[in-house]
TrEMBL record:
<dbReference type="GO" id="GO:0004671">
    <property type="term" value="F:protein C-terminal S-isoprenylcysteine carboxyl O-methyltransferase activity"/>
</dbReference>
<keyword id="KW-0808">Transferase</keyword>
<dbReference type="GO" id="GO:0032259">
    <property type="term" value="P:methylation"/>
</dbReference>
<keyword id="KW-0489">Methyltransferase</keyword>
<dbReference type="InterPro" id="IPR052527">
    <property type="entry name" value="Metal_cation-efflux_comp"/>
</dbReference>
<dbReference type="InterPro" id="IPR007269">
    <property type="entry name" value="ICMT_MeTrfase"/>
</dbReference>
<feature type="transmembrane region" description="Helical">
    <location>
        <begin position="71"/>
        <end position="90"/>
    </location>
</feature>
<feature type="transmembrane region" description="Helical">
    <location>
        <begin position="7"/>
        <end position="32"/>
    </location>
</feature>
<dbReference type="Pfam" id="PF04140">
    <property type="entry name" value="ICMT"/>
</dbReference>
<keyword id="KW-0812">Transmembrane</keyword>
<feature type="transmembrane region" description="Helical">
    <location>
        <begin position="38"/>
        <end position="59"/>
    </location>
</feature>
<keyword id="KW-1133">Transmembrane helix</keyword>
<feature type="transmembrane region" description="Helical">
    <location>
        <begin position="155"/>
        <end position="182"/>
    </location>
</feature>
<keyword id="KW-0472">Membrane</keyword>
<dbReference type="GO" id="GO:0016020">
    <property type="term" value="C:membrane"/>
</dbReference>
<feature type="transmembrane region" description="Helical">
    <location>
        <begin position="102"/>
        <end position="120"/>
    </location>
</feature>
<protein>
    <submittedName>
        <fullName>Isoprenylcysteine carboxyl methyltransferase</fullName>
    </submittedName>
</protein>
Length: 219
């Protein structure tokens, strides 16, 4: 599988910026990397960034896009910037923190699990996975594998990974930022499902009837 060369600069620069904001929040490299869980978090972040280069995902509007949903991207970007810096800052200043190294390590585990769940569907869909709500050329409905149970596994992975990042810094504020991600994420889910229903009709309606949006047995 060829690397996503067009997205490579965005992925690499975005990863460096995200980590840089966290290091800045913690007060510098020495302070940040004095914690083994944060070293593990950094390694996981770069491994997932490297994997993303080969996932096949894109930012193409494809053949048909719901442009009215693009506002969600701005909200995600804002929450993302705050999530990169603020949890690290509150960790350093001991503001609304959850005590214990076990919290940090549980955060690392959740970050890895969420990142895996976030990327797995991108590899499954390849070029059909876009950062925009869009129908791609040759788009086909995938209803097997991980998509046989939940319709939006990558979004669930995003939430789990965000929670893991917050807990790695013992940050109550970070947990709140994860919660604030849910409303725009659900707006994106509704827009995506409306587009897929318009594209695939009864096939998607039947698929939707037998699966869950994000959490099996709950939603």
């Amino acid at each position: 599988m060829k690397p996503a060369l067009k997205l490579a600069p965005f992925i690499l620069l975005g990863t460096l910026a995200y980590l840089g904001l966290a290091v800045l929040g913690w007060g510098g490299f020495a302070a940040f990397f004095a914690h083994p869980p944060l070293i593990a978090l950094t390694i996981a972040l770069f491994i997932m960034a490297g994997a993303a280069l080969f996932s096949g995902g894109n930012l193409s509007p494809g053949e048909r896009e719901d442009r009215s949903n693009r506002w969600v991207l701005a909200i995600f970007a804002l929450i993302g910037l705050l999530s990169a810096w603020l949890p690290a800052y509150t960790d350093r200043t001991e503001f609304w923190t959850l005590d214990g190294e076990a919290v940090r390590w549980s955060g690392v585990v959740l970050f890895v699990a969420g990142g895996t769940l976030r990327l797995w569907p991108v590899f499954v869909l390849g070029h059909r996975f876009s950062g925009l709500v869009a129908i791609q050329p040759g788009h086909k409905l995938v209803t097997s594998g991980i998509y046989g149970t939940i319709r939006h596994p990558s979004y669930l992975g995003l939430l789990i990974g965000s929670l893991g990042w917050a807990l790695a810094f013992r940050s109550g504020v970070g947990v709140l930022l994860t919660a604030l991600t849910i409303p725009p994420l659900l707006a994106r889910v509704r827009a995506e499902e409306a587009l897929l229903l318009a594209q695939f009709g009864s096939d998607y309606a039947a698929y939707r009837a037998r699966t869950w949006r994000l959490v099996p047995g709950l939603y």
